[in-house]
Amino acid sequence: MQGLTAPIIKGLWYVALNGRDLKPGKMQPKKLLGEPMLLGRTDDGAVFAIRDACPHRGIPLRYGSFDGQSIQCCYHGWRFDRTGTCVEIPSLREGQQMDLTKICTPSYACVERQGMIWVFVPRDGETPAEAGFPEPPVMPDFAVGDAPRFHCMLPFHCSMDHAAFGLMDPTHAAYVHTSWWFKKGARKLRPKEKHFAPSELGWSMVRHELPPQNIAYKILGTPVTTEISYMLPGLRIENIRGSRMQATGLTAITPVDEGETEVHQFFWVSAGWMSLGKPLFQHLMRVFLDQDRRVVVQQREGLVHDPKLMLINDADTQARWWMRVKDAFVKAQADGKPFENPIQPMTLRWRS
Predict the structure, then answer these.
(1) What is the pLDDT of residue 210?
(2) Cis omega (within 30 of 0) on the bond before 136?
(3) Which residues contact 60 (CB under 8 A, 6 or more apart)?
């Protein structure tokens, strides 16, 4: 936890893009988990992800052209389909036989669910099914085809671990998220007691009623209850239910490399009329997320000197859980054994 970088977990699904940001017939290069990728959407709407490198001379394929079905390298005109397999070499003459199916750039499992584009980054070439995660997680209360109404993304100049600790820290909000629309009387600390239980790849804060000072949620209708799940590889899912509507928020951490991350925030809501306020809501989301971004950038100034960090019980317990779950998952991968969640049900108490 003390370092500026963190090992990357492979063998899991990661959020790569908001589906709306990738139009049919277009490509978008991304560096995810230290790997150069090229994501695209064919003319018929299918999404794909391949390594952004031509296997002929190594030039990134992003510099080539895409006709909606295949990518042509800008260097020698070799053409590749959505699986990364070569389908044409223009320089071949009549009678020169080559098995083009043996020429390929690696591809990645890529699916679009609930308006998000997920990429599975394998460990040792395993498929999602072989890894035990054939599909990415689904947001509760919303159909697989439901896209988020609001989305924002910001780059974080910190490791995945330090970005994740911020997601799990229940006491920083009073000092970092001080916008009036988020929390009335943000600096007035109140005693909290929450119950937690293990989940498939992490743990959950058991569903509970939100206190009245959380004024931003009152639009959903009172009473309002929430359940917050934290899971590998770096997902925070908050499922909120009110008397008038339901909402789900996802914060997804996707490492660019061992010292840089992208943090996405998505928000689904059952009331269609809220789309009328999309510019305002997305602005507020960006302000909120940028407050987290700024504080981890400031934190990095201190981490450069490798200080000894001290975590306290209850308030920092979830940060410890993150490392325990991550270490247990990585060890299970290395040992070739099923992952056993080390988290036990517990009640935590703090002031925030």
Answers:
(1) 86
(2) no
(3) 29, 36, 38, 52, 53, 54
Residue 250's closest CA among 258, 242, 239? 239
Is the whole model's pTM more than 0.90, yes or no? Answer: yes
Residue 45 is given by DSSP the state S
d(CA 91, CA 94): 10
Helix (H, G, I), strand (E, B) or coil at 8: coil
What is the structure's pLDDT at 214? 66
Residue 351 · residue 171 · CB < 8 Å? yes
Among residues 94, 99, 61, which one has the least CA distance to residue 78?
61
| CB-based contact 102:3 (threshold 8 Å) | no
DSSP designation for 275:
G
Q: What is the mean pLDDT of each run of 10 residues along the chain (352 residues)?
A: 85 97 98 97 98 98 98 98 97 93 97 98 93 95 95 95 89 80 61 95 95 72 92 96 93 96 96 87 91 92 90 95 96 95 97 88
3-state secondary structure of 19: helix
Q: Whose CA is closest to 350, among 310, 318, 308, 325?
A: 318
**DSSP string across 159-209:** -HHHHHHHHH-TTSHHHH---TTT-TTTTS--EEEEEEEEETTEEEEEEEE
